[in-house]
Write a structure and sequence with these properties.
The longest helix is centred in the last third of the chain and has 5 residues, at 49-53. The chain starts with a strand and ends in a 12-residue tail after the last helix. Helix content is 8%, strand content 22%. It has 1 helix and 5 strands, in the order βββββα. By secondary structure, it is mainly β. The strands form 2 sheets. A 3-stranded antiparallel sheet has the order 1-2-5, with no helix packed on it. The protein has one domain (2-53). The model has no long low-confidence stretch (mean pLDDT 92). The relative contact order is 0.26.
């Protein structure tokens, strides 16, 4: 999984998406973009809404200060 700055998490390769109830979420793809902004109309998948709402998040792990 790769987090993109101010954008989605990109998930590549063989994987299985499961919701909080244990139900499999079919994607039909080997690469998907997962929403981080919470505003996508196709959650858990990204639909690009983060660009419209000005979502901001770093791509790297936060460091303890």
């Amino acid at each position: 999984m790769t987090p993109y700055r101010d954008g989605p998490y990109l998930l590549r390769g063989p994987f299985e998406l499961v919701d909080q109830d244990g139900n499999v979420i079919e994607s039909g793809r080997r690469t998907v973009a997962l929403c981080r902004c919470g505003r996508s109309q196709t959650r858990p998948f990204c639909d690009g809404t983060h660009k419209l709402v000005g979502f901001a998040a770093p791509s790297e792990a936060e460091r303890a200060r």
